[in-house]
Give the backbone structure.
Amino acid sequence: MARQAQKQESGDERIVARLAAAIHEHRLAPGVKLNEDEVGEVYGVSRTVVRAALQKLAHMHLVDLRRNRGAFVAQPTVKEAREVFEARALLEPRTARSAAERMTEADIALLQRHIDDEHKALDAGDTGRALHLSGLFHIEIARIADQDTIAEFITQLVSRSSLIIALYWQRRAALCESHAHDALLRALAAGNGPLAEELMKSHLLDLLTSLDLRARGSVPQSLKEALSE
Amino acid sequence: MARQAQKQESGDERIVARLAAAIHEHRLAPGVKLNEDEVGEVYGVSRTVVRAALQKLAHMHLVDLRRNRGAFVAQPTVKEAREVFEARALLEPRTARSAAERMTEADIALLQRHIDDEHKALDAGDTGRALHLSGLFHIEIARIADQDTIAEFITQLVSRSSLIIALYWQRRAALCESHAHDALLRALAAGNGPLAEELMKSHLLDLLTSLDLRARGSVPQSLKEALSE
DNA sequence: GCCGCATAAATCGTATACAATAATGATCAC
DNA sequence: GTGATCATTATTGTATACGATTTATGCGGC
C-alpha cells in the first residue's frame, strides 16, 4: 500500500519497472540484448517510449547503451562490483545511524514485515524474491533517514548490487544476511545509532566478501555455455 | 586535451553539455521553462533529441520534468541543498584520502593548473568560470581516486551544488575556498591521506555554512521581484 | 578450404506527424 | 463587474517514417 495506483505514470515508467524487475529477478540475464522493436511489441508501445525507458535504465547502470549497437543488460565488471560496494560502504552506515535516530513505530513494523516476507520467500525457495526484499530493506532505511538524495543513490546501488550478485554470487544456499537484517532492525528499533552504523558496515563487508570477485562472472562468456539451455 | 574531439558523441550529448553549461554559468536561471521546440530550434535539432537531453539533465536533477507541463531549470529547495552537501560530506573526504594515496606527478600538475586557472578567473572577475573550475577540481579528485562509481555521484552533486550556490550564495565577494583548494592540493601532493580527508571535510562544511539556507533562494518567488527587470 | 570484400539485412538515430493534455482567452449568466 | 463554463491555442506524449550505421551473408580470389 505504499506506492500503489499512481495512475498518472508516464508510460515509460511502466516499461522501466517491468524491465528492472525482470533484471532483478534475473529473468533477463546480463549481456542479453534488448531489441527496441521486440520490447515495444511485448509491452504494446512504440520504440519512442522503449528508448526513453532504456535510457533511464542506462542511467541506473542496469543496461548498457552502445551507440548504433543497441541496449544490453549490464554486465558489471569486477572493478565495478567493488566500487558499488565501496560506495555503499560510504553511504549506508551513516544513513543507518540517522535512521536509528528517527525510527517510528510504523517504520519498525514496516521493516519487520520486510524481514518476515524475506524469511517466507527463503522458506519457499524463492531466492530471487528474497534478494529483492533484501534490497528493499536497505532502501527503506535510507527513506526513513529522510535523505532523498542519498536514498536515490542507495536505490541505484542496491539495484546494481542485485545484478552483481546475479553474476558473482557463489554460495547461494547460505543467505546469512537475513540474520544481519534481524540484528540491524533491533539496533534501529532501539534507537542505537552507533550500533546500527557498525552493523551496517559489517553487513556490507560480509556481502562483498561473499562474492567471488577473482573469477569472471558466471555469464555465458563462451557460446557453448549459452547454448546449453 | 582531456576529453576533446570525441567526435562520435550521440547528438543529445552536445545539447546536454550546452544546457548544463548554461545552467552552471547561470545563463539559465532556476525555474526557467525549457520549451522543447525552442531548444530544438536553437541547436538545430528536432524535439526527439531535445527530449533525450532533457531527460538526462533531469536525471542529474539539473532540470525538473513535469508531466504534460514541460521541463524547467531545477530550483533546489533548502532541504535538497542540505542533502546534497551531506551526501558530499559522506563521499568526498574518503575519496580525497584515496586520491592522496594514488597521486602521480601528472595529477598534481593538472590540479595545480585548475587552481591557477581558478585564480586567474577570479582576478578577471569571472566568478562563474571560477565556480565551474572549482567544481572540476572536486571531480578531478574523484577521478584520481579511480572510483568511477563514486566519481559519477560526485559529478552530479557538484553540478547540483552549482545550482544551489546560484540560489543561496550570499557573500559572493569572499571566495575563500580557493585557499582551501591550495591546502588540499598540498596534502594530496604530499600523499597525506588523513590530512586530505580532514581538509576536504572542513572545506565542504565551510561551503555549506557559507550558504544562507534560512531564507528562500533568491529566485523570483513573487511576481513583483521578477518584474523588476 | 580460408580469408577479404561487396552486397543485403537488420537495427539504431533522428525527424516529422498526429493525438492527448494542459494553459489561455472569450463568452455568457448572474 | 465578477464568476464560471466553454472554445481555442499551445505544448507535451506517442507513433510512424526515413536515413545512417552496423552486422550478417554470399561471392570471388588466393
About this structure: The two ends of chain B are 40 Å apart (CA to CA). Residues 222 and 228 of chain B are 11 Å apart (CA to CA). The domain at 78-209 of chain B is CATH 1.20.120.530 (Four Helix Bundle (Hemerythrin (Met), subunit A)).
